Amino acid sequence: MKMHPWLAAAALCALSAGAPAQKRPADAGAEKKLYCWDEGGRRVCGDALPANAVNAARTELSARSGRPLARLDEQMTPEERAAAEAAEREAGIAANAEAARLRRERAMAESYETEEDLRAAFGDRIVLVDEGLKTSRMGVANLRQSLVSLLRQANDLELQGQPVRKALADNIQSQHRDLLRQQAIMRQQMEERASLDEELAHAVERYHALKSPQRR
User: Fold this and answer.
1) Closest CA to 57 of 27, 34, 35
2) Would you say 213 and 114 are in contact if contact means Cβ atoms under 8 Å apart?
3) Is the pLDDT of residue 56 over 70?
4) Same domain, yes or no, for 57 and 88?
5) Confidence band for 57, pLDDT divided at 50, 70 and 90
6) Cα distance between residue 76 and residue 137, in whole Å
7) Which of 49, 73, 130, 215 has a CA positioned 20 to 30 A from the CA of residue 199?
8) Could you say which residues form the signal peptide (predicted)?
9) Is residue 25 domain-resident?
């Protein structure tokens, strides 16, 4: 029996629609890879990563063509990641401090018309520190003289075979503590005075650099 052409086409479509679709393998489209990593000072490659190389830096290659597909850096441990984040924060703080210093220097160049004005501003601070140092030196000298006098009294008593009274011993200890405290203050003032000289020298240098014609 001869089938009409349009009936034959309809039957073919029905058969095609009812036939089950042929499944493709799930990884048919995935490109097989090779992995290369360093282990014990030598280069190792394979088609699978062992457990000890999962977090290592590695290169992924196409198994078919040998073409590099990806380069993965070594994964950091939580401790290493925390250290890296801390270093990044410290770098940010340092960068902000440097930016603030540059702003202060620009403001300084704009605030003083001449170098003499700049030196005069530092001069006021230097005078204050020098006056404090002068007072501290006098205080140290007086405390030392008083302590020497008390120690001489205690020495005379011992030479005479007499006991050193508690009040005298307590006074000696108190004077000694006061002397040490005043000496520490004086050392701090001397360091501040030296840093002021360095700061002034640096400020003058930066002032001239910022005021130079090429920066205008």
Assistant:
1) 35
2) no
3) yes
4) no
5) confident
6) 57
7) 215
8) 1-21
9) no
Across 27-36, 44-53, 59-68, 187-196, the highest mean pLDDT is recorded for 187-196
Give the integer Cα–Cα distance in Å for 74 and 70. 13
Q: How many whole angstroms separate alpha carbon 109 and alpha carbon 208? A: 8
Find where tokens 């302590």 sit: 147
Same domain for 123 and 206, yes or no, is yes
**Same-domain status, 118 and 101:** no
User: E strand or H helix at 60, and its extent?
Assistant: strand 58-62
Q: Are residues 196 and 139 in the same domain?
A: yes
pLDDT class for 4, splitting at 50, 70, 90? very low
Determine the pLDDT at residue 149. 93
Q: What residues make up the domain containing 104?
A: 77-111
Stated pTM of the model: 0.45
Residues 154 and 201 in one domain: yes
**Are residues 96 and 169 located together in one domain of the fold?**
no
Residue 184 has pLDDT above 80, yes or no: yes
Return the structure tokens found at 58: 């590695």
Q: What is the mean pLDDT of residues 40-61?
A: 79
Mean pLDDT of 94-115: 75
Tokens of 160: 């005479």
pLDDT of residue 60: 83
Phi, psi torsion values for 165, nearest 5 degrees: -65, 150
Distance CA 202, CA 44 (A): 56
